[in-house]
Structure formats: C-alpha cells, structure tokens
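User: hey, got a sec? need Meteorin-like protein folded
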Amino acid sequence: MQEGGMGIAHLFHACFTERNTPPTVPQRGPLSSTHHHPHRSHQRICKSVAPTPEGIIFFLHSLHAGSKRGWQNHLMSLLGREFWSRRSGLPLLLLLLLSSLQQPCAADYCSWKGSGLSWEPHSRAVEQVHLRCTEGFLEWMYPARALRVILEPNLSSARHTTICIKPSSNFQGANIYVEHDGQLHLLVSEAEEPRLHHVSCFSTHSPQQVALFLQASPQRDISRKTASFQYELLSNQSASGRDFQKMALVKAMCRPCDNMELLMAICSSDFVVRGSIQNVTHDSENQMSQVEVDVHRVYRQKNRIFQQDKETGKWQGPIKTLLQCKVKKGMGDFLFTGNEHFGEAWLGCAPRFKDFSAIYQEAREKGANPCDFQFN
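Assistant: Yep! Here you go:
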C-alpha cells in the first residue's frame, strides 16, 4: 500500500494546491455579508464529508468536475481495500484525508487574509485566491511576489457589473491591477499618499469572473506592510470610472425623489431613519459632504452606523452625499433613506417626514404602497 498511498497523497495535494491555501476565518466588521440581500452571496465554510471512501471520491470529483474517472476508480479500489481490511478503525490514510478536508476552502469565502511570509522563499509561483461574494475584503500582510484575486460572485443574470475597490488608509507594499483584454491596468498605486486612496471603480461585461493582480513592491527592510482593501460588486449597472462621484452607487443623488421612488426607498434601502439635521460639513478636496443626524427613530439599518450615545442616550449617525448636492441644514424632521457602501451610509431619498407621511397614507388608501411602513 505504500506506493498506492504516495500516489493518492500526491493527487490529493494537487487538488488543493489549485484551490489555494486556506484563509483565516474573516472577522466581519461593518462590512458584513451575513445580512440578507437579493444580489449577495453569504459567507460559507466547507464542511467535511462523511468518513467513507464514496464520500471522499464525491468530494474530489466535485472539485474537478469533468475529469476522467480512471483515477477515481483507482483511488476507490485502493481506499476500499484498505478501509475494509481494518475493521478495528479507520486507516491512517483516511484519517489524514479527512483532517485535510476539514480545513476551510479559500474559494468559499467572501474575504481572505494571508501573509507572504508563509510562502516558499525561492518560488516564483503566483498565488491565487478565489472570492465568491459581492462584497468583502482582502488583507495581504508582508506582500511577496504576486497575488491573483479571482472574483466569482453569483451574478450570472447580470448584464453589467460595476466593481469598486477601496484601499485601506495604510495600504502599503503592493500595486493593484485589473486584468482586461489580456492586459494589466493600474488601479491602485502604492506611490500615492494614503489620503489619496479613493474608491476606484470599473465596469465589466463578464461578471462571472473578474481578476485582480497584486504585485508586491521590492522590500528594503523587514517592517510590516499590509496591502488590504474592501470590494463591492453591483449588478445591472452601466457606470464606470475611477472617481467615486461617477459610480452608480450615487447616481441621481442630488435630485428629489418622486413619490414612487420614495415609496420604493422605504422598502429597499439599507437604512431608513427619522431624524433632524444636527450639522453639515463639506470636504472640497474629496467633493463630499457629511450630514450629522440626530436620530429619533431607527426603522431599519443593515449595520450599526446609527448608534446610541451612552452618556446622552441619543441616537446619532453620519450620512454622506456629494458636495455638488449643496446640502444645507434644514429645520424639522426628515425621513432619511439610502444605502451602505464600504461601511458608510450614503444619502438616498430624504423628504420631510410630514410630506412622506401624506404620500404614504394616500398610496395606502389606493392600495399602491409596495410595502407596509410601521410609523409607531
């Protein structure tokens, strides 16, 4: 069995080398994929198969669908003889296979965290990471050589996809390129100052698979550098460009919503809160404005952007919008709606609450409201 065992071990190692080294379980913060969303996959962990030869064959076959069955039958016969000849317990080979199967698979994660220190020092191979969600993050500590990131979200029905990358404030050690038509196009440069690392977006006509290429910069010392970023993918969008202002995330943000858009906003927005404007600040350099809101009622929020102050007991939170919208501080209560991107709230429809109440009541009397809204 020694010769057969060596062949099986080599075959099993080849299967998992293609699938990449397992990442650590991502600790999701404000950017979470565990909330329900019609276009978002959720974080999954590969589970071990049943302790039978048939289970292992099925698992390996699922990793390499379409392969010839010759090696599968050979492996089945080897495992079968060894399995049934040891009635006192599972053979060592089977236990080793099962212990490997219990490790998480990189392809089933929304996020990945790894280090260049764990790679072979003299190898020139390019490591690959597969991410299958529409949002997540990547953290590459001590970047070395290169890393190819394959985004494979479940967006088979999308005609277009807008992909946005937001580098961390301490992004160092690598440049990010996007592969397009067989060429690499620079997306994020390490040479830029951290404060200039804006959100970069581009569109693709092939949402099933998008490749990013991270090339490590030459290291002159052993200080810790980390190349990390968040990503988001949005289906059925046609906008593209490097500037966040041009993204489909904030399209038509400055114009008032009509009645139907408002009624839809309370149904589909990531957050819906009632409150008043405490303050408005403007950032001319980044062409952004931020609205500080005193929240009187949180109807819905995906993440904890609006939080209660422990000392005062009041709920507060920031909402971002474009500088060109010329937002000013107004009196009275408003209904703030919008979506969250990269852990920040972006303003959508924001009518005065009394106006919204009248619009909703009229639509409800006519049976035209797309969803119910609980005022109390």
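Quick note: The longest helix spans residues 2-19. Let me know if you need anything else on Meteorin-like protein.
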